[in-house]
């Protein structure tokens, strides 16, 4: 015969096994759930531009003896800056948004890796704004050095190239386009390889940005004669900021509007080409991929 205490203990055991009501989310928690992914892309892209354009600003402005008696770096320094910015940006955003920080990669992930298309507009907008803000911060930091380098308040492409890409005069329009296309094809192709567990070479999540650092540094030093955007947000966001800062219409008219077909159209096409090559010649399925269905890590 059970006692009252035994009955109470049994009742408590039954109650504890019953499903508990979930706590209601506060308005702020619901808001955070919506913006967390885009904000990770914003911060990741901003950091990419801060480190990359910051290195470019240090190298370019100190080449003028009016700014510094000793130059602070060279072409390799600029490539290191962009590669470091990429790695830091992915480390910051990877665990939250899968670290695309590149509209071309975001669209490729939606096309080939089931990243939700409904998230694509917010991610791309966040990436572009991140590029704009990152450029603004670097410009504010180097404003005096840029003034001294130019020797006047009139802004020219000599310092615009710190932030955005222009093809060298010796390059044809076709070769400039192909460089951006080829670089982004390689970039997306390697991203697909490094995030596929079936290859047996996938780095741990914490080391993935380091692998991307090596890749980006290699692409920059080997194929970087146009400034190697490989990323529409890394070029268009800063370009919009420079227009706001008074750099003039040359930003949009150089080499028959290079800004649209070089650092924007070519990376989108190149990322699709890289994903296509991997999917149709090396890929064996998504089942064991490191990343969740939202998409894989990119740049």
UniProtKB/TrEMBL annotation:
Region (Disordered) residue spans: 1-20
Chief location category: membrane
Location in or out of the cell: Membrane
Listed InterPro entries: Aquaporin-like, MIP, MIP/Aquaporin, MIP_CS
Any one Gene Ontology molecular-function term assigned to this protein's record: water channel activity
Record-linked Pfam families: MIP
Source organism superkingdom: Eukaryota
Membrane topology note: Multi-pass membrane protein
Stretches with biased composition (Polar residues): 9-20
Reaction equation(s) it catalyzes: H2O(in) = H2O(out)
Record PANTHER family: AQUAPORIN OR AQUAGLYCEROPORIN RELATED (PTHR43829), AQUAPORIN-9 (PTHR43829:SF9)
NCBIfam families reported in the protein's UniProt record: MIP (TIGR00861)
Protein name listed in UniProt: Aquaporin
């Amino acid at each position: 015969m059970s006692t009252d205490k035994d009955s109470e203990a049994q009742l408590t055991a039954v109650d504890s096994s019953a499903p508990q009501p979930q706590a209601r989310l506060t308005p702020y928690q619901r808001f955070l759930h919506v913006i967390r992914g885009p904000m990770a892309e914003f911060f990741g892209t901003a950091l990419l531009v801060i480190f990359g354009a910051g290195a470019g600003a240090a190298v370019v402005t100190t080449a003028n003896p009016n700014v510094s008696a000793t130059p602070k770096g060279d072409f390799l320094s600029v490539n290191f800056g962009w590669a470091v910015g990429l790695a830091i940006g992915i480390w910051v955003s990877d665990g939250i948004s899968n670290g695309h920080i590149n509209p071309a990669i975001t669209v490729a992930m939606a096309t080939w890796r089931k990243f939700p298309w409904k998230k694509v507009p917010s991610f791309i907008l966040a990436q572009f704004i991140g590029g704009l803000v990152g450029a603004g911060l670097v410009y504010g930091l180097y404003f005096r050095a840029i003034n001294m380098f130019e020797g006047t308040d009139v802004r020219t492409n000599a310092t615009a190239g710190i932030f955005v890409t222009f093809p060298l005069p010796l390059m044809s329009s076709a070769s400039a386009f192909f460089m951006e296309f080829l670089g982004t094809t390689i970039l997306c192709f390697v991203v697909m390889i490094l995030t596929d567990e079936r290859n047996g070479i996938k780095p741990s999540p914490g080391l993935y940005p380091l692998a991307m650092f090596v890749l980006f540094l290699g692409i920059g030093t080997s194929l970087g004669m146009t400034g190697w955007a490989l990323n529409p947000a890394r070029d268009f966001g800063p370009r919009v900021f420079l227009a706001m800062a008074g750099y003039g219409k040359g930003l949009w008219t150089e080499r028959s509007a290079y800004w649209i077909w070089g650092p924007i159209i070519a990376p989108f096409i190149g990322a699709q080409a890289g994903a296509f090559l991997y999917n149709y010649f090396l890929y064996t399925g998504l089942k064991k991929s490191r990343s969740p269905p939202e998409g894989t890590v990119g740049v």
